[in-house]
Amino acid sequence: MRSRLNIEHALAYLMWGVETLSRRDCSLILTGARVCNSEQRLTHLLARWEQQRLIVRHGRGAQARFTITAEGRQRIAVTDPTRHWNEPWDGKWRVFNYDLPETRRTERILLWRALHDRKLGLLQRSMWVWPHEVEPMLREIIQAQGIPECFCGFRSEALFLCSDMEVVNVAWDWEEIRRRHQTYQQHLTANVDSLKRAADLPALARVARIERDAYQYAFSLDALLPRSLWPSPYAGPGMEARHQEFLAVLSRRARELST
């Protein structure tokens, strides 16, 4: 598993750093990521990535250069919060619950984890909410987990006795979400400073790997709700702006060190 993660980090560097890297640059980065320790292994790895259509080779031999493909970008795709934030909301909540007795505790736990991993909101006990269409997602969960169709779902036309923001504040753990946001912002400055101090491509790749993991973790519980449902305060937009600044510095330093 460790090797696969390192390879994906190395691929991510191709996308986050510069669009095209030389064979020498690839060798330095992959050595720094502890994926390759010989020219022969590098050759096999690059050839395998080509076969998998993750990269495209331009030229041959020592002068070859490599560019990541659309398939490669999909393989290492990270959270894109702006896509979710900009998704329009029709003002209707999708509400659903399920009935699994305590005697089927294992299934209850699996189901809870599946719903939680998809960042659906838990309003109370077995009642969950989501601001967008959710039926296809639930059918996918049922099929994957083998859980009987014990769901009851409906679309709310209007709320009474509570507001949309009260639903938002209760259904997601904003205290933990904000803690992860703050942790990311506290370490981001250090990551940018590390980029500026990096003396070679392997060092730069290691910083990029740390930032990528921190960025993913920061948004790992965030439901990425539409803008009209953002809680107050919400640090998401500021985090994304600083993340883009990091990528700009990474790209500039990668070009400098690769020449």
Task: Give an overview in words.
This protein has 11 helices and 7 strands. The chain is an alpha+beta fold and 259 residues long. It folds into 3 domains: 2-75, Winged helix-like DNA-binding domain superfamily/Winged helix DNA-binding domain (Arc Repressor Mutant, subunit A); 93-156, Alpha-Beta Plaits (2-Layer Sandwich); 173-258. The strands form 2 sheets. It has a 4-stranded antiparallel β-sheet. The protein has a 3-stranded antiparallel β-sheet with strand order 1-3-2. α1 packs across α10. The radius of gyration is 22 Å and the shape is elongated. The two termini are 33 Å apart. Mean pLDDT is 81; it is low at 1-5.
Q: Which radius of gyration do the C-alpha atoms yield?
A: 22 Å
What string, H for helix and E for strand, traces the elements in order?
A: HEHHEEHHEHEEHEHHHH
Count of DSSP E strands?
Answer: 7
Round the mean pLDDT to the nearest integer and report it. Answer: 81
Strand share of the residues?
A: 5-15%
The spatial strand order of the largest sheet comes to: 5-6-4-7
- Sheet/helix structural class: alpha+beta
- The low-confidence parts are 1-5
Q: How far is the first residue's CA from the last residue's CA? A: 33 Å
Helical content stands at 55-70%
